[in-house]
Specification:
The chain is built from eight helices and four strands. The chain is an alpha/beta fold and about 230 residues long. The protein has two domains: about 120 residues, Rossmann fold; about 70 residues, Serine carboxypeptidase S28, SKS domain (Four Helix Bundle (Hemerythrin (Met), subunit A), Up-down Bundle). It has a four-stranded mixed sheet, sandwiched between helices. Helix 5 packs across helix 8.
């Protein structure tokens, strides 16, 4: 449970999913999905890229569940009910879990020892390893990737979003602007000037989420969406 202390020597069962359909012993790679904040079956069913390239790479697919989610509960049903148990819910502990699982796979899966491992993740699952080496990643690179997604989707798409922030600010300073924004975005309650930053945060999160699930096929990972939803 605790990889970095000495007082707690308890262990817990971590769930992981594995597919060896295309695994070529001593000649393939291991694609290792670093789990997110949720049930690992959910992520394995919506990570098409790994399944798409498995045959070409002769890959062993491994989906590791993040501690405190799904069935990987260090303190069973009490895991998230008491703050004293939540001290062990950190990205550092989760990464150490993944490292230990990789060591286990190398020891127990025939042909795995010595084969290359490629870590794959999305959203938090992809970011957590980077956080431990934040000096290697330029600030703002994530939002640049999001912006590039919209640039590729159509002429002046990203430019329109960029201009929208100024337009919202200008409208919020007029008597007719706030009611217009309320109607335009089909909001449940009438906007006031104090709500504008929350509105922009909500829109920004929408653009980010669309970029994250901009899959080339229909999916219902966050919501039912068509292929290439950014377009």
């Amino acid at each position: 449970i605790d990889h970095f202390g000495f007082s707690n020597t308890k262990t817990f069962k971590q769930r992981y999913l594995i597919s060896d359909k295309y695994w070529k012993t001593y000649d393939g790679v291991i694609l290792f999905y670093t789990g997110n904040e949720g049930d690992i079956t959910w992520f394995s069913n919506h990570t098409g890229f790994m399944w798409d390239v498995a045959e070409k790479l002769k890959a062993l697919l491994v989906f590791a569940e993040h501690r405190y989610y799904g069935e990987s509960l260090p303190f069973a049903e009490e895991s998230r009910k008491d703050s004293k148990y939540l001290n062990y819910l950190t990205s550092e502990q989760a990464l150490a879990d993944f490292a230990e699982l990789i060591r286990h796979l190398k020891r127990t899966v025939p042909g795995a020892d010595g084969q290359p491992i490629i870590a794959i993740g999305g959203s938090y699952g992809a970011s957590a390893p980077i956080w431990q080496f934040e000096d290697l990643i330029p600030c703002g690179v994530f939002m640049k990737i999001v912006t590039d997604d919209f640039k590729k989707s159509g002429a002046k798409c990203s430019e329109s979003i960029l201009r929208s922030w100024g337009a919202i600010n200008r409208l919020s300073n007029t008597g007719s602007g706030l009611p217009w924004l309320t109607r335009a975005f089909h909001l449940c309650n009438s906007l006031n000037s104090k709500d504008i930053q929350r509105l922009k945060d909500w829109l920004s999160e929408t653009w980010v989420n669309l970029a994250m699930v901009n899959y080339p096929y229909p999916a219902n990972f966050l919501k039912p969406l068509p292929s290439w939803p950014v377009k």
